[in-house]
Amino acid sequence: MFGVEGDLQATGADDTFAPWKFSNPWFSTVRGRVGFALNNIMFYGTGGLAFGELRGETFGLSESHTNVGWTAGAGAEFGFAQNWSAKIEYLYVDLADSHFTVTGTSNGYRFGTVRAGVNYHFHAF
Question: What's 20's domain CATH number?
Answer without folding.
Answer: 2.40.160.20
